[in-house]
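dumping this here so i dont lose it
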């Protein structure tokens, strides 16, 4: 039976009654909102300020070049910079823009890798569901040749996990100078997305043999 993706189903837009689902959905949508705003800044040179209040009344914000600067401008409180301050601020903004573009590129590259790996993992799982596999049998039911093949597949799995962990660590270590978040918001997006990589011994073995 073919499973139908939730992305193709109609979802009613109404407030969630389940508190735990509400918090999870808010965290995911908030991170996605900030990410799209960051991409818009990079691609179009837009200046954006976003302030979000969570269901728990915590405040999260995104601002480029900064929330305070844009709010002051919106309220008409922006004063002309004295002397050479304008040139200094211009250089600072350009430097920050370069850092933001580099960060967005790394995030998008990691998301592309994640999508490819996830698609590969789902494909392997579909094959396994259709055909089954002797490697799912108890260890004491395998012969010597099967045990050797299983051990080799586990070595490849270990290498894949180490490589994925290193890639995630690279993204996690990149600073995000333009985001000003609440106390419990992680500064990266990669970690939340890549935690369900879809790899397991059976999938890795099926991919290698």
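and the seq i came up w/
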């Amino acid at each position: 039976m073919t499973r139908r993706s939730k992305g193709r189903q109609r979802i009613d837009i109404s407030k969630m009654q389940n508190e735990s689902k509400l918090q999870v959905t808010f965290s995911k949508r908030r991170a996605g909102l900030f990410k799209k705003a960051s991409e818009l800044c990079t691609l179009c040179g837009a200046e954006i300020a976003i302030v979000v209040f969570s269901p728990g009344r915590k405040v999260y914000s995104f601002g480029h070049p900064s929330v305070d600067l844009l709010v002051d401008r919106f309220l008409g409180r922006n004063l002309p910079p004295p002397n050479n301050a304008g040139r200094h601020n211009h250089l600072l903004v350009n430097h920050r823009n370069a850092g933001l573009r580099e960060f967005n590129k790394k995030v998008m590259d990691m998301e592309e890798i994640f999508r490819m790996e996830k698609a590969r993992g789902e494909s392997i799982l579909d094959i396994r569901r259709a055909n089954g596999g002797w490697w799912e049998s108890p260890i004491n039911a395998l012969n010597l040749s099967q045990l050797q093949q299983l051990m080799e597949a586990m070595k490849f799995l270990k290498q894949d996990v180490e490589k994925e962990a290193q890639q995630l660590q690279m993204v996690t270590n990149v600073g995000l100078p333009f985001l000003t978040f609440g106390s419990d918001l992680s500064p990266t997006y990669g970690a939340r997305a890549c935690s369900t990589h879809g790899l397991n011994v059976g999938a890795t073995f099926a991919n290698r043999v």
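Confidence is low (pLDDT under 50) at residues 174-200.
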